[in-house]
Amino acid sequence: MASSQFSLPPSLEASRIAGLPPSAYYIADFISEEEEQKILEKVERAPKARWRQLTHRRLQTWPSDLVKNTLLDGQPLPAWLEEPIISRLLSVPVLPSSSDSSGDEKEKQQQQHIFADSPHGRPNHVLINEYPPNTGIMPHKDGAAYHPVVCTVSLGSSLCLNLYKAKEDGALDSEPVWRILQEPRSLLITTADLYTEYLHGIDPLSADVNMSERTIANWSLLREPSLYQNGENQRGVRVSLTYRDVLKVSKLGSKLGPMFNRRP
Ligand SMILES: O=C(O)CCC(=O)C(=O)O
Ligand SMILES: [Fe+2]
């Protein structure tokens, strides 16, 4: 069987998830099967010390853990997390190209790419989470360390991400307001209100159920909705790569004095 190829939309606008607060985007075939396999191998072969084991889930952080919400400048991201994902991410304009050349500066920037407004103009940090069936992540917000653009590439298996609205008193409705199905090789981008006003989480289930055009926000953007015609998704091991721009990067070298601060 020929392996699948990636396929990008002309602009993110074409991949907007309708019915969600602006802006969330879903691209089903962001990477090819071959690229997916290469990345999964790298994740699995990372040195054991790279993994942090939580009760049910394990994770890796690249290039390093944050210290007080700060990324210590030093190591760049490894090549296998840079290519092809970051350049592909930055190659998709947010808005369709307009024939009107008199567009203002703001509009031009938005046309560039999804990280055009972030402090470093690109993601500088990747969190890798591994979810065997029956594992998930509690509803949470991603907090103040990052620019509010989250790009998640899914590998290995499909599962549903739930979005919750926090009530005035901080309590949480038990039912999600929306569910997004993330297929392997897909890219999900969430920004703005979805970052600041809503929580996201993954239920620890062996299967996602009750899925349909009515209950899954990105149903019309799925690669293979026919796989879920009975409303069910049996989960396998799903690995996610979460790309973000950490706002604060500490120039450790400059604190150590001029000897350490020379750049070739
Ligand atoms: O795996 C995912 O899709 C979500 C991960 C997540 O929410 C996080 O790491 O903050
Ligand atoms: Fe998160």
Summarize the structure.
This protein is α+β, with helices and mostly antiparallel strands and 264 residues long. The chain has helices at 33-45, 79-82, 85-91, 105-112, 192-196, 252-255, and strands at residues 24-27, 52-53, 58-62, 70-72, 125-131, 137-140, 149-155, 159-165, 178-182, 187-191, 198-202, 207-208, 233-234, 238-244, 248-250.
Feature tags:
binds fe (ii) ion, 264 residues, Jelly Rolls, seven-stranded antiparallel beta sheet, alpha+beta, four-stranded antiparallel beta sheet, single chain
In terms of topology, how is this protein built?
Blueprint: E1 24-27, H1 33-45, E2 52-53, E3 58-62, E4 70-72, H2 79-82, H3 85-91, H4 105-112, E5 125-131, E6 137-140, E7 149-155, E8 159-165, E9 178-182, E10 187-191, H5 192-196, E11 198-202, E12 207-208, E13 233-234, E14 238-244, E15 248-250, H6 252-255
The structure holds 2-oxoglutaric acid and fe (ii) ion.
Region (Disordered): 97-122
Family: Belongs to the alkB family.
Keywords: Dioxygenase, Iron, Metal-binding, Nucleus, Oxidoreductase
Weakly predicted, low-confidence segments: 257-264
CATH class, please? Mainly Beta
Task: Name the structural class.
Answer: alpha+beta
| Separate helix tally | 6
Pfam families: 2OG-FeII_Oxy_2 (PF13532)
Subcellular location: Nucleus
Main location: nucleus
GO molecular function, one term: metal ion binding
Task: Give a verbal description of the structure.
The protein has 264 residues and is α+β, with helices and mostly antiparallel strands. It has one domain (12-251): Jelly Rolls. Helices cover 16% and strands 26% of the residues. The protein is built from 6 helices and 15 strands. The protein has a 7-stranded antiparallel β-sheet with strand order 1-10-7-14-5-3-2. A hairpin with a 4-residue loop joins strand 2 (52-53) and strand 3. It is globular. Mean pLDDT is 91; it is low at 257-264. The structure holds 2-oxoglutaric acid and fe (ii) ion.
